[in-house]
Amino acid sequence: MTIVIFSTLLLVINCVPQEDKYGKTRDEIVTEQIENRGITNQPTLDAIRKVPRHKFVPPDLIENAYDDRPLPIGYGQTISQPYIVAYMTEAIDPKPVQKVLEIGTGSGYQAAVLAEIIDSVFTIEIITELYSSSQKRLNDLGYKNVLCKNADGYYGWEKYAPFDAIVVTAAAEYIPPPLIKQLKDGGKMIIPVGSPFLNQALILIEKSGEAITTTSLLPVRFVPFRRGD
Ligand code: SAH
Q1: Is the pLDDT of residue 133 over 70?
Q2: Does any ligand 1 atom lie closer than 6 A to the CB of residue 46?
Q3: DSSP 8-state secondary structure symbol assigned to residue 192
């Protein structure tokens, strides 16, 4: 009898997914780092609670995955701070029946957060090694609604345009005109604009017919937007 109970207990313990080790941490950081700073969009909060951020960082940084800061992901690039990912996601007012384009896949974390909310996510990465590793990671984690491409995101992704929203996660010195063109009427784009590593601001761009409205939202520091050959 004791043996049966003991082995049942073992079985139950073994069935608890590994995820749960960080599930509580995610709940805590959503409250402390994100809700406390004013993010209220429910789908965004739920997505951050769900995506296993520790699977998007290099193995030696797993214990830091939920720190309130960006982390290096190799090739001089970074995975953004959880708050900034939440902020950018909320800013585009994400809805399930949408098509979103991300420029700068990096680790794939922002793409995964978007994919928890939005049906079709397209993401472009200029560094081939990061493109390959993030594509594999997103695939292994079961994100079937994310399509990855290895290219210079300056030109957007004409084949799938227009997009309801565009999220750029590298700082450009100016807003790439092809991205504005590929934004749907009524669409929103969020992009850090400014000099490399200095005075940058997150800019929200809203398109209404031919009219483009820009709003400066938040001072930020992103890695530079690079250009291909
Ligand atoms: N969104 C990422 C963070 C990315 S850091 C994440 O969640 O992890 C910015 C990324 O933008 C880097 O990986 C960098 O290589 C990429 N990048 C910079 N310029 C680019 C361009 N012109 N086209 C596509 N990707 C670009």
Answers
A1: yes
A2: no
A3: E
- Pick the catalytic residue: 7, 80, 107, 132? 80
Using DSSP, state whether 1 is helix, strand or coil: coil
Return the bridge partners of 189, or none. Answer: 166, 205
Taking the complete model, does pTM exceed 0.90, yes or no? yes
177 CA from centroid of ligand 1 (Å): 18
**Which of 57, 81, 225 has most ligand 1 atoms within 8 Å of CB, for mutation?**
225
Give the relative orientation of helices 42-50 and 20-29 as an angle to the nearest 10 degrees: 150
End-to-end CA distance of the chain: 70
List the one residue out of 50, 131, 124 whose CA is nearest residue 85.
50
| pLDDT 10s digits, 27-48 | 999 999 999 999 999 999 999 9
Ligand 1 close to Cβ of residue 90 (< 6 A): no
